Amino acid sequence: KQYRIAVIPGDGIGKEVMPEGLRVLEAAAKKHGVSVHFDHFDFSSWDYYEKHGQMMPDDWKEKIGKHDAIYFGAVGWPAKIPDHVSLWGSLIKFRREFDQYVNLRPVRLMPGVPSPLANRKPGDIDFWVVRENTEGEYSSVGGRMFPDTDREFVTQQTVMTRTGVDRILKFAFELAQSRPKKHLTSATKSNGISITMPYWDERVEAMAKKFPGVKWDKYHIDILTANFVLHPDWFDVVVGSNLFGDILSDLGPACTGTIGIAPSGNINPERNFPSVFEPVHGSAPDIAGQGIANPIGMIWSGAMMFEHLGEKEAGKSIVDAIERTLAERTLRTKDLGGNADTTACGKAVADMVD
Amino acid sequence: KQYRIAVIPGDGIGKEVMPEGLRVLEAAAKKHGVSVHFDHFDFSSWDYYEKHGQMMPDDWKEKIGKHDAIYFGAVGWPAKIPDHVSLWGSLIKFRREFDQYVNLRPVRLMPGVPSPLANRKPGDIDFWVVRENTEGEYSSVGGRMFPDTDREFVTQQTVMTRTGVDRILKFAFELAQSRPKKHLTSATKSNGISITMPYWDERVEAMAKKFPGVKWDKYHIDILTANFVLHPDWFDVVVGSNLFGDILSDLGPACTGTIGIAPSGNINPERNFPSVFEPVHGSAPDIAGQGIANPIGMIWSGAMMFEHLGEKEAGKSIVDAIERTLAERTLRTKDLGGNADTTACGKAVADMVD
Ligand SMILES: CC(C)[C@H](C(=O)O)[C@@H](O)C(=O)O
Ligand SMILES: CC(C)[C@H](C(=O)O)[C@@H](O)C(=O)O
């Protein structure tokens, strides 16, 4: 079968790292006999917004809703367009309307990447953060009362549904079960947030019964962030709500020194809709246009996309190539102490793929 | 004037570190001519709960509400009594009923304490986390619908009032203004939590106008946790909501290796009610009864209490004594690679006070 991929470079360095992502995907596809077709789209970007007054065409769902996956660069340019317009008009729209209820990110210490943590070596840190991606703290229910007076207040609801919580927990338990350590950690804060968080705990206990082979534990988010720094080797699969997962999936990559190279998947596991694969870094207006952006996050996201499509070998060949590339100082980009530019680094990974 | 301090050791190691805290407070009081009287209370503990079926006597407010401050050990013994009974029945009750709307914690890299971060030395990291302590995400507004069905859901509201947000921001800006760097950082997540968090941002902008001498910036909580690990030297005063402050004030001490020795104040700045000073560590049932607990968190909390009472010199003399004690391996407790027990470490600090 031929996979059809929607390619959306978006803004800023998204446009610069995308060609390298595609280069590596093509190299891996060729080596592993995978057939891929790329369709390019210019929406979900500041340029598009400037011309059309909206982030995406009215028929965006028809345009990209039937693709096997969406390969996404970066969106947002705060100086030109407010975040809530650009992000809620594209990225968060995808998550909700394509029911991408899993946000998945690896936390992995890679060779050649200086970790801010003392005495940690590649292999020591290797886990996944599984984040609920559609509800929880990111609800739009709430409002303001008594505006502009001393009595003013705002409220916003966190919403956890049985459907929403159970399906993300099922995904996380299944992932844990597929890994050698079979260990799941759940993040809550039930001693302070006394209604929603105990509900999540309750559903974890119920789900755990269906996965007797998985060892599980839970931590309050405050001490869990501390343990990411103090004991990153404790973790295997960590699952949390929309907000807690968001925090942990930035903190985790930071602990491995890799925020600039971390990949992510916004996944609809049932494949009723396409999933989105994108680097964790944003559009980075400050370095855009210079050709120095690190393309590894984009490339690694491509590897996750191949794995999601079922092309495990091709996906793994990309991750291996990334590791070999990062191990060579001269092939790394400037942010990692190397002297390669975006293209040179992308070409190096493509050459390493086997 | 003579200060009247309510002393509540609470549970577990709270009872073991309290005598050392008092020893050092007495030593500092003597050297600096401060007059203190201590009243001891056995409530807010598992022992009390076992006898009386509640955490505190009905007239707890009369008993301790007129003291100048409350010196608190630790509460909680999850195996015996659920957290929501012990914590909401004491600690969180104090915060709300004594209007302790500031939770204040130092993040400071101390000599002799191994930091999990590579290449950081004492002096590199030295900032305060200021946490809103009465409202925000820890509201009790919410509930469950359609229980035990597939349609089940729970909601919980975050509540931010103008009064609540403005007063914590004012405290944080004043603290920033009193420090050499005069720098304030605000934690929000306005690109995801789109009602309450933008309101906090709005109030920061309004408050900043009253403090033209203070430089300020803001970060989304996800990247802010990353920056605690990557750039802890960037911060001076960091202010956040009840939840975000909770997270940052565990993560910060973890980055400096000091969760076991970190102090905290639950402060009512207007002094209409007593403030509570307590170590960040809990009752630690696993090591309780062995006499090996590290008393530094308790002692340092005493220093914060003296500063709050206006006895700056006495407070500073304690912090200096802590630094000198920690610098000596033999005077540190086991958790910091030393061989002193709780009492020996406490006596060492008391001797160092000058
Ligand atoms: C015990 C718990 C309710 C408390 C909190 O979250 O406020 C603790 O973590 C703290 O930071 O004092
Ligand atoms: C851009 C923002 C809304 C988003 C989020 O918080 O979900 C981002 O931080 C992420 O993690 O993908």
Automatic annotation (TrEMBL), chains A, B:
It catalyses: (2R,3R)-tartrate + H(+) = (R)-glycerate + CO2; (R)-malate + NAD(+) = pyruvate + CO2 + NADH; tartrate + NAD(+) = 2-hydroxy-3-oxosuccinate + NADH + H(+); (2R,3R)-tartrate + NAD(+) = 2-hydroxy-3-oxosuccinate + NADH + H(+). It comes from the Bacteria. PROSITE patterns: IDH_IMDH. InterPro entries: ICDH/IPMDH, IsoCit/isopropylmalate_DH_CS, IsoPropMal-DH-like_dom, TTC_DH. SMART domains: Iso_dh. SUPFAM superfamilies: Isocitrate/Isopropylmalate dehydrogenase-like (SSF53659). GO terms for molecular function: D-malate dehydrogenase (decarboxylating) (NAD+) activity; magnesium ion binding; NAD binding; tartrate decarboxylase activity; tartrate dehydrogenase activity. It holds the Pfam family Iso_dh. Pathway: Carbohydrate acid metabolism; tartrate degradation; D-glycerate from L-tartrate: step 1/1; Carbohydrate acid metabolism; tartrate degradation; 2-hydroxy-3-oxosuccinate from L-tartrate: step 1/1; Carbohydrate acid metabolism; tartrate degradation; 2-hydroxy-3-oxosuccinate from meso-tartrate: step 1/1. Keywords: Manganese, Metal-binding, NAD, Oxidoreductase. Its cofactor is Mn(2+); Mg(2+); K(+). Its EC number is 1.1.1.83, 1.1.1.93, 4.1.1.73. Residues 4-349 form the Isopropylmalate dehydrogenase-like domain. Belongs to the isocitrate and isopropylmalate dehydrogenases family. Has multiple catalytic activities. Apart from catalyzing the oxidation of (+)-tartrate to oxaloglycolate, also converts meso-tartrate to D-glycerate and catalyzes the oxidative decarboxylation of D-malate to pyruvate. This is D-malate dehydrogenase [decarboxylating]. It comes from Bradyrhizobium stylosanthis.
